[in-house]
Description:
It is built from 7 helices and no strands. The protein is mainly α.
Amino acid sequence: MMNEENKYQFIGKKIREAREASGLSQRELADKLGFESSTAVSYMESGERKVSVVDLEKISQLLDKDIRFFIGQEGEQLNVRVALRAETGLDKKDQDAILHIIEMAKKHTKDNGTK
Length: 115
């Protein structure tokens, strides 16, 4: 497991990778983020500056990357419980439909003796 310092270095490396792939300079990204100088981006990319969730969300949108890319979970499936809790815009009918599908899947698994 990564310690906190290594996590920020990893995130910084991913920010640099995505920024360069987008063809942006540190200055351009800093401007888009509303930072006064490119130094803040440089510090984030080196892991010397902790990246806030708010900044990471902005970076994710600006560089057109899923936020999971920056934390090393890009290919991982989204946890169903987390997804349902995060999606507050669903109306009751849609929530019930999703819960029904989950119950059907659980029954199917149980009936087939698999987990």
